[in-house]
Amino acid sequence: MFRQKPLAAAVSMAVWSLAAVPAMAQDAPAGQIQTVEVTGIRASMAKSLAVKRDAATNVEVITAEDVGKMPDKNIADSLQRLSGVAVRTDYDEAEKVAMRGTNPDHTLILFNGHTVSGGDWYFADQLSSSRSTSLSLMPSTVINQAVVHKTSEAKLVDGGMAGTINVTTRKPLAQKERLTGVVNLGGVYSDLPSKFAHDTNAAINWKNESGTFGFITTVFAEKRHVRRDSASRFAYSGGSGWDVINLDTMKGITDESLAGTGYKASDLQGVRIPGSMSTEYVEGVRDRKGGMFSLQFKPNNDLDMTLTGFHSEMKANNFGRLNAGAMFSMLRGLGGVQGTNVPTNSNGQRVYAQIKNPVIVTERTLYGHELKVLKAADIVYPAGTTPQYIGETEGAYRDGAKASSAFLDLDVKYRVSQDLTVKALLSATKGVGKTALDQGLTYTRYGTGVSYALGSLYDAPFVQYYGTGPNVPGRNPDGSGYVLSGRAASGVTTNDKEHSINLDAEYKLNSAFVNSLDFGVRHADHRRDSARRFPQLRNSNLESFAPTGAFNFQPLPADFGSGLDGPAGWDNTSWTLTPEALKAYFAANYKPTNAQWERRVSTELDMRERQSAGYLQANLEGERWSGNVGVRYVRTKVNAAVPAPIPVGLCPRTEPGKPATTCAAVPGAITTASDGVQYYDGVPFNPLAGVMYYKEAKESTFNNLLPSLNLRYELTKDQILRFGTSKTISRQNYNILGAGYGSPTCTDGICQVTGPNPNLEPMFAKNVDLSWAWYFARRSVVSVNLFASNITGYPKTGVAGQDRVTLLDPRDNIVKEFAVNSASQQGARIRGIEIMYEQPFGSTPFGFTSNVSKAKTKVDDGRPMVGASEYAANLGLYFENEKVSARLVANYRSEYVNTSTAPAPNANSQGLSTINGVLMPVAPTMAAPVTTLAFNASYNLTPDLVLSLDATNLTNVKRAYYRYSEAEPQKLDVAGRSYYVNLKYRF
Description:
Blueprint: H1 9-17, H2 41-54, E1 59-63, H3 64-68, H4 75-79, E2 85-90, E3 93-99, E4 107-111, E5 114-115, H5 123-128, E6 145-149, E7 163-168, E8 179-190, E9 195-207, E10 213-232, E11 242-244, H6 265-268, E12 272-274, E13 278-297, E14 303-315, E15 318-325, H7 327-331, E16 354-364, E17 370-380, E18 388-399, E19 402-415, E20 420-447, E21 449-453, E22 462-466, E23 481-508, E24 514-533, E25 553-555, E26 575-577, H8 579-589, E27 605-622, E28 625-646, E29 692-714, E30 719-730, H9 734-738, E31 742-747, E32 750-754, E33 763-777, E34 780-809, E35 814-840, E36 846-859, E37 871-880, E38 884-893, E39 896-897, E40 912-915, E41 918-921, E42 926-927, E43 930-942, E44 945-952, E45 958-962, E46 969-974, E47 978-986
Parallel strand pairs: 4-7, 32-35
Antiparallel strand pairs: 1-6, 2-3, 4-5, 6-7, 8-9, 8-47, 9-10, 10-13, 10-46, 11-12, 13-14, 13-15, 14-19, 15-18, 16-17, 17-21, 18-20, 19-20, 20-23, 21-22, 23-24, 24-27, 25-26, 27-28, 28-29, 29-30, 30-33, 31-32, 33-34, 34-35, 35-36, 36-37, 37-38, 38-43, 39-42, 40-41, 42-45, 43-44, 44-47, 45-46
């Protein structure tokens, strides 16, 4: 099933050829592991294993030097190497981290013990309002240590249902020398866009002679050009995704049109068919800049204070082009703009596309049903038909796309007495995701037909369009070509911020079994808001200031799609407007009003969440065993200001530039926002047009107890047995709790509207974990870990719940009660195993690391768990001596349900669909298995000067997606390789 190009043999052989270099340096004595300065792969592995071995709970560990010896560009890249960890990757860079088969929303990311807010750079993610933390803003150079907690304990911050990851940054006084630093100068070459960029960072550490005060300053400026080539089934609403052939609406499919094929029209009834053959081309940039500082004051052994600040901003303008077919619309005889319900017209007659040369196969779906699929066909209009609507081409430039993340924390530790130590952690964090303007124009394409043939999952399909004329903008005399048919422009800003305080204490008892008590409290005030901006345009005429002239248009590059393979002759050509032409069009058509008028209240998110917790944990210790037992009390208070619609005509809207009006019927009505009402030049303003909204206050409070128990037992000096059981919590995504109402519909006396469910309780998991580890030699371990989780409160989206709201029936303009179509809750479970094995190759400079995990998930309604991969694996080979170090790493992730990390509350991902008379679950989009390969090598020119080479995505992997089965390919992406060369100087 899984097929990729062969691995680069030269790269693989390069690792083994290093054996000719002088023998490796002597290992540091075992007793020095905790204090020696880590300087290489072997020492960093020893340190990580020592921390893992001594921990009371089941953890995985990454150290700073380990990251430096891997081809990792952000923290997520590093974490994906660990057992049980998988990542969501975009443009060949890991972004969001998932653990043990779950979605990234269920993993809690901490920095220095507190949460960190981060913005998303991509427009759709900025709108999703998930709880997952994007690590694309966090360069790997800021890590001191990352500890992955696979089992929970009472003193851990709550929120990680599947696990918690705590990333610590460096402390100034931990360095051995008074003045140290590093300067890294380098560059990166991205082979698909064929562009170079800089890759630089620097750090300096100083402490005074007495070792009581010091500081660290780190800066980074890293840029990378990205490109993605895709073949997909995406199109507009009239032709997206997959559907079935319906002879009642697709009247061109007849026995006569199928003559000579061996099929009758009835044979095609209900056969699955792709709605479109599309190509997508995206270019962008990742320009990440920022820095970190840390000040540490330790006047004596009793008091230690550290102030740490971090800021990172990534500018990520991106430009997408789409060339989409419209086979559904063609077969249904629809010729309107973008597949609307306008009949085709050829010489005064409505025409329907026919199916010629069909190839039908039978698929078995992931739910076990058999379906027929139209694997290949010619979708053509009858001979003599004038050119008709066959699809669209568009360009969308997302200007001012950026994300930022910042935090400031003060960590104070004071030893009150020999037995009592108190700690305080105060933190503030803010993340922003923003796109100033997502602007695009759509051109409708006219022709006479299209041929397609679906190949394997990992090959681009064949596609060829007919009768479209030259592949340039403009309508031709025969009616073929392109016509400007649509425009869209909007911006979005999402803010996420939190202030928190942790007060903790440790009291030593030194009793027979209870060594010490940990206890403390935490309070966090979290706010999340998201708002879209829709600029007001001067008129409805699409042709106003429309770009003309060849200089405003550009074709796709000649090599577009070359990495997607596929059959010879498939149409990989298209064109689009330049970014400058798009920006000029919308600038010329923009009509200044005010920020309030450009609001769409219906899309806004406005939430506040206050989390309070207290815990007590007893740390246990006996002969050959240790552990902890505790309980954490958690109180969550959610406040949501939900946009609620007001019946049309009930409240007057305020004209831009006029004093704001109030509505007597609904005093809280937001009268100054347009919410889609246009204010064109020369058109009288109607204050009663359109839907108006007010913010409806919703509040919920949840109180929960989270017990935990962890035991560690030394079977022998080198064999460790661990057992852990706990109850963990994960709060629902913000959009499920606080999204606005929309799409009211009434059918057969039943009225429904999409909307939030602020009454949803958090998700909980009852977890059991059993592990065995054998540290059989230096830097060597083999371990087996069994785990299970029973989850309650897992969201079931797209279900009419108990909430009701009063709205206007759009059919008769009568106010009625609507059931809110939102999210309910159900159960889920996870059962899994993780195996890890790493070891040097005897006394040679070589060694390897490996791990594999399996996590079987099940949801009550039978659907796969979103974002859950059943299998994940890593294999790494390394070489190190006193001059050279090298590492080749492969990462595998099996298929999973691919969706936004925060699916909309009304998403019908858990509905039912009737296909060929069989009622079955709606098909999710599945991401197919993927294996990536990366390489790192460094050479010590001098003891202080190191030259390094990194390469990522060496096999130029293709990422494939499908629907019910691999016979229904949905999308195929390729993003190219990246090569980094760096010169690092330490002093």
